[in-house]
Amino acid sequence: MLLRLAGPMQSWGTTSRFDERDSQLEPSKSGVLGLVCAALGRDRTEPVDDLARLRMGVRVDREGLLMRDYQTVKPPYLRASGTIERKDAIVSRRYYLADAAFLVGLEGEDRSLLDAMDSALRDPVWPLALGRKAFPPAAPVWLEGGPVELGLREALIGAPRIASPRHEDRAALLRLLLEHPTEGAMRFDQPLAPFAERRFGPRHIATEVIDVPV
Q1: Alpha-carbon distance 51 to 159, whole Å?
Q2: Residue 18's pLDDT is what?
Q3: Can the peptide bond before residue 76 be classed as cis, meaning omega within 30 degrees of 0?
Q4: What contacts 83, CB < 8 A, 6 or more positions away?
Q5: CA end-to-end span of the chain, whole Å?
Q6: Going by DSSP bridges, is the β-strand pair 77-78/185-191 parallel, antiparallel, or unpaired?
Q7: How high is the pLDDT of residue 89?
Q8: Residues of the chain with pLDDT under 70
Q9: Rounded Cα–Cα distance for residues 123 and 119 (Å)
Q10: What CA–CA distance (Å, rounded) separates 53 from 191?
């Protein structure tokens, strides 16, 4: 099944620690499955094994512009040590993608799960967000047509573009990233436990470029 992730701001971090919040250039699997959990109304303490077994692919219909948001926390505030800081402010650097559009595919053999996800994305239990709660989608994540009987690559290549390219990118090819069992770059965004435990393992991503008519 296919999802549309488009909005003025998105953030798909996989290595964020403390006051530095990163963003990858494409949606992370943990972020996409978190969004699906919100649609299903699945709590962070509930298992996600069935969702984690899905194979994910991403077509980058419009590359995002990597931006940095500058935030501060003024004292007093409570430190992790339990003490109260009364003098120094915290500076937090938070990265996000501006004006990006992604077509995301999730492939699996459990048809009942895909049908449930399709219904939930059409009428989500909780509000959906593109990586952070403050980043709502600009268009429905749900795409008409529901789950399709195609392989992941074929479905992503055959679908029409979900966003027009920028003028300078009209002749550019699109990046296609597919989860692969052994080859490609490694990402640490494969959920290994309920999201509340924040345990993620590696997965491989194979990248190619494709031509999709404007």
Answers
A1: 23
A2: 65
A3: yes
A4: none
A5: 22
A6: unpaired
A7: 84
A8: 17-18
A9: 6
A10: 9
Residue 156, classed as helix, strand or coil, is: helix
| b/e burial code for range 34-55 (CB count within 10 A of at least 16 → b) | bbbbbbbebeeeeebeebbebb
pTM of structure: 0.91
Distance CA 16, CA 46 (A): 23
pLDDT tens digit string along 52-100? Answer: 999 999 999 999 999 998 888 888 888 778 888 888 888 888 999 999 9
DSSP for 164-208? PPPGGGTTPPEEEEEEESS-SEEEEEEE-S-GGG--EEEEEEEEE
d(CA 96, CA 109): 33
Q: Where in 28-169 does DSSP place strands (E)?
A: 55-62, 65-73, 77-78, 84-85, 90-107
What integer pLDDT is reported at residue 80 of this predicted model?
Answer: 72
Residue 6 and residue 27: Cα distance in Å, rounded? 11
Name residues whose C-beta falls within 8 Å of residue 80's C-beta, 6 or more positions apart in sequence: none
Interval 21-33: pLDDT, tens = 889 999 999 999 9
Can you list the alpha helix ranges (DSSP code H) found in the chain? 29-40, 49-52, 111-122, 152-158
